[in-house]
């Protein structure tokens, strides 16, 4: 029984629900201190596991890692993804405009500015700003985690998604001033140039390819020493917090991992790579900046 995994799900639920720790502890019939211990991976009594499964509205089997976890809030999904990445040695990415772990600091800067401006225009400014800060913190934590672990990444980016990012800029979907939107478009162009350079140089542990056909759905296969997970999400990492509507999911089911692994391997065989991929990315930059 993986109590650490259950604790991670409990923490993700706390972010998902927006409830205070005291409220969740009361529903579980435990103290707040016990709740925090459970989140850290300490042993949980079976009766508490049953109540926790009821609270999360999932079966006890799903809670024990046999089923599927669902997330309707981007923040909760990003936190759970960060937790899974902590144990991953290999990452396969299919779809999306970027591989976030390989993005530049300039990308993060433009993203933070855009999110802060969008939050300041929201009806509930304080809550929106807190959500933006939390989302940025989760992304930065994921990047720092990768820099320390150096998991091997094979990412197959979508040509259509990259084109959209070049046209709209990073942080698409937010209501931004002309000045900030211009910065976001410039950041998208600089990031595309960085992607093209990485495709040509192939840094150790990072391989980027380009898919001519857009995937029906983006996903990640993350493999660790003991187990693998499949993560499916409609929430792009550069999406403005609160702008996305959808449901993400994470599962460690063997059949799901195997099926997505096969699709990823086939996509990698068909993807443009190296100088051919870099050339196509630079064509996209020219086509969208005329």
UniProtKB/TrEMBL annotation:
Coiled coil regions, renumbered to chain: none
Pfam name, any one: HTH_31
Membrane-crossing segments per the record: none
Highest rank taxon of the organism: Bacteria
SUPFAM superfamilies associated with the record: lambda repressor-like DNA-binding domains
InterPro entries noted in UniProt: Cro/C1-type_HTH (IPR001387), Lambda_DNA-bd_dom_sf (IPR010982)
Domain HTH cro/C1-type: 10-63
Protein name: Helix-turn-helix transcriptional regulator
């Amino acid at each position: 029984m993986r109590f650490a995994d259950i604790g991670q799900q409990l923490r993700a639920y706390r972010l998902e629900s927006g409830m205070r720790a005291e409220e969740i502890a009361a529903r579980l019939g435990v103290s707040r201190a016990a709740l925090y211990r459970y989140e850290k991976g300490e042993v949980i009594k079976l009766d508490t596991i049953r109540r926790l499964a009821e609270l999360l509205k999932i079966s006890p089997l799903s809670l024990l890692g046999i089923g599927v976890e669902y997330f309707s809030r981007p923040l909760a999904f990003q936190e759970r993804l960060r937790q899974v990445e902590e144990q991953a040695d290999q990452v396969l990415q299919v779809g999306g405009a970027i591989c976030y772990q390989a993005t530049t600091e300039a990308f993060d800067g433009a993203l933070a500015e855009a999110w802060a401006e969008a939050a300041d225009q929201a009806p509930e400014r304080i809550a929106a700003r807190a959500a933006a800060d939390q989302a940025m913190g989760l992304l930065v934590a994921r990047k720092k985690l990768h820099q320390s672990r150096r998991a091997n990444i094979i990412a197959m980016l979508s040509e259509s998604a990259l084109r959209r990012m070049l046209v709209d800029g990073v942080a698409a979907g937010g209501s931004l001033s002309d000045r900030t939107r211009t910065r976001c478009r410039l950041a998208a162009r600089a990031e595309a140039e960085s992607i093209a350079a990485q495709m040509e140089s192939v840094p150790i542990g990072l391989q980027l390819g380009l898919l001519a056909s857009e995937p029906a759905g983006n996903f990640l296969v993350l493999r660790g020493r003991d187990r693998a997970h499949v993560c499916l999400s409609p929430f792009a990492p550069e999406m403005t917090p609160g702008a996305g509507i959808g449901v993400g999911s994470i599962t460690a089911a063997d059949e799901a991992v195997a099926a997505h692994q096969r699709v990823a391997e086939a996509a990698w065989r068909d993807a443009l790579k190296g100088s051919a991929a870099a050339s196509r990315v630079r064509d996209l930059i020219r086509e969208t900046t005329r």
